[in-house]
Amino acid sequence: MSEFLLDVKNVKTHFFTDKGVVKAVDGVDFKIKKGETLGIVGESGSGKSVTSMSVMQLVEEPGKTIEGAIKFKGEDLLQKTTEEMQTIRGNEISMIFQEPMTSLNPVFKVGEQIMEVLMLHQDMSREEAKNKAIEMLKIVGIPRAERVVDDYPHQLSGGMRQRVMIAMALACEPSLLIADEPTTALDVTIQAQILQLMNELKKKLGTAIMLITHDLGVVAQMADHVIVMYCGKVVEDAPVEELFENPSHPYTKGLMKSIPSLDDDKRRLDSIEGMVPHPLRLPKGCYFEPRCPYAIEKCKTHKPELKEIASGHKVSCFVATEEVR
Amino acid sequence: MLKYILRRLLQMIPVILIISMLLFILVQAMPGDPIQAYLGVNSKVNPEVKERIKAKLGLDKPIHIQYIMWLKRMLTGDFGESIEYKRPVSEVISQFIWNTFLLNIVVFILAFGISIPVGIICAVKKYSRTDNFWTVFSLIGISMPSFFFGLLLIFGFAVNLKIFPISGMITAGSRYTGLAYALDVAKHMVLPTIVLTIGSLASLVRYVRNSMLEVIKQDYIRTARSKGLSEKVVIYRHAFRNALIPIVTLIGIWIPTLFTGAIITERVFVWPGIGRVLYHGVIMRDYNIVMTLNMFFAILMLMGNLLQDIGYALVDPRVKVE
Q: Which among A49, B213, B214, B308 has most CB atoms closer than 10 A?
């Protein structure tokens, strides 16, 4: 087994729509070590969520992962049957989502929903599963867990529901937790609590986290390593300190500038000019070229490749790589 | 819960009273001469006798007195006598209503028994061949008038192929008992059952399919899949439990129709059901029959509503009956 828990190589997930092929994920590479947190950053439509769904093998029709390899503990998930994937989902890789308000089934008690994974993957009896569910609710910091276990989702607040989701996701002690914008829908104070909880649990259980977000603040707080995605491709890949100290791709720089800062007394935040290109009308050269303030002639016609510019820091930009050389 | 049901039942009393008044006025306002109907359309009787009969039936009094008299009788369980059948209304109704119920309960079981699984399959395999078949089927089912479809079936299966009887509920002149009787009735039931079932299937399948489609795209279904649950558990446990909520409404609406009958289909197949009795009652100005049946249907409707609300509370934990 390699030192990496998850090794994603050149994964392409395309959606075959009536109007054409949408290349939502188009040749993405990244690796996650055991117990490490990888942040995946990008705007809406950059392919972050589709990447996570590809790992789970839950991409919905008409989408399909057509190329690449997703090695989890040395085995390629793309080669697994549906049944084999079902023993991995919720057990070894689990997931939490953006919308805690709608991610829990409204007609089942929250305890029931946690127990379901335990009885499925760990062969627990109902009673054992219920005890474990209560224990998990306590671990995620839910007060009066013995009572909450018999509550329905609508009786809980958004923050509490996200805690329940985390309890459910971690019930079988998975080695990888995929968190797709886990705090986006929550209040700022609750957001901080949930992030802190995830960090604590990561240390306690040794779970690796694949954290998808558009919020660089969250990345700074959580991630060890970051990839930045744009239009289905990785444009920058670096350890978190390196990325914040030395952002190299113009897109990453743009994202950094749009973070509000306390030191500045500017009245308006910087934003990246222009719009994400339509997925069916992507530019011929670099996808970021139309919005890029540094673009040169070559960017219009050629596609840049990811190149290492410092140890562990890769970027796909002609300007950035030439600057270094 | 018990308190809630009791309160709802009490609330029904004024509603029923208002309905009864409106009905009474409407039925009285119907054109036509009940006395003439009572005596037979062609009989010639001198006006004096007519007046006597009118007085005997209480039809000579002012309308509010008639209403109070009628209400008093209703409350004591005396529904009066049918002008047409010359028998107590309660006897007439109990003679025919079970025929209607028999036909409708079979249709009810078939319609829901088929449309729920079919609707689910159509939703899960949206735009597949199965789904497209049922879409076309629904369109035909909804557009085809039941009397036309009924006649078509009679022509094909009864007249030409002679597999099923043309009409009625039992073979005329037969004296079957026990199992043979049941079989005879079953044979007569086949064609009307097909007509009614197909008519209901059409819309029910669409309804189940749409409510299932609505649920399948919800976030919690994605959660269920990410937990490693098999597709079967995801669909039949997580999705269906939620799709059931709107279906409960439908069952609530259906319960009264188990007794109200299908007037047109009953006429086409000469099924001795309550729909036909009501139809004749209206034609013959049989006030007691029309009033009693309409009141009965109104009460059934209200009960169906109550059952529907209770059903909601049972399947959806977010709904509380208070």
A: A49
State how far the Cα of A184 lies from the Cα of A166, in Å rounded to an integer: 15
Assess whether pLDDT exceeds 90 at residue B257: no
Predicted confidence band at A214 (pLDDT cuts at 50, 70, 90)?
Answer: confident
Alpha-carbon distances, residue A195 vs A134, A180, A184, A220, B219 (angstroms): 21, 13, 11, 11, 21
Closest residue on chain B to A113 (Cα): B224
Q: What is the CATH number of the domain that holds A231?
A: 3.40.50.300
A57 vs B contacts (CB less than 8 Å): none
- Two structure tokens written together for B44: 């010639």
Last residue of a domain, one of A125, A143, A171: A171
B231 neighbourhood in chain A, CB within 8 Å: 82
pTM of the model: 0.82
- The amino acid occupying position B164 is F
Smallest CA–CA distance, residue B189 to chain A, in Å, is: 40
Indicate whether A231 belongs to any domain.
yes
Closest CA to A255 of A266, A246, A247, A265: A247
Mutation target among A92, A105, A117 for the B interface, most CBs of B within 10 A? A105
**pLDDT over threshold 90, residue B59:** no
Q: Tell me: do A163 and A201 sit in the same domain.
A: no
* Per-residue model confidence (pLDDT) at position A153: 95
Write out the DSSP string of B99-127.
HHHHHHHHHHHHHHHHHHHHHHHHHHTTT
Q: Which residue is closest to B244 within chain A, CA to CA?
A: A107
Distance between start and end Cα atoms, chain B: 8
Domain that includes residue A124, residue range: 102-171
Q: Is residue A188 part of a domain?
A: yes
Task: Looking at the structure, tell me whether residues A282 and A179 fall in a common domain.
Answer: yes
| Rg, chain B, Cα only | 24
Residues 6+ apart with CB under 8 A from B204: B111, B112, B115, B119, B250
Tokens of B127: 């735009």
Q: B228, A152: Cβ pair inside 8 Å?
A: no
Q: How far is CA B72 from CA A23, B64, B69, B285, B306, in A?
A: 77, 12, 5, 21, 26
Q: Determine, yes or no, domain membership for A97.
A: no
* Cα of B72 to nearest chain A Cα, Å: 48
Which of A119, A136, A171 lies at the terminal end of a domain, its last residue? A171
Cα B203 to Cα A172, B119, B263, distances in angstroms = 44, 10, 19
- Asked if residue A301 belongs to a domain, the reply is yes
Given a cut of 70, is residue A267 above it in pLDDT? no
Q: How many domains does chain A have?
A: 2
What is the DSSP-derived secondary structure letter of residue B88? B
The least confident of A62-76, B44-58, B121-135 is: B44-58
C-alpha distance from B202 to closest chain A C-alpha (Å): 28
Which structure tokens are listed for A70?
Answer: 């997703």
B38 vs A222, higher pLDDT: A222
Contact A27, A16 (CB under 8 A): no
Residues A278 and A137 in one domain: no
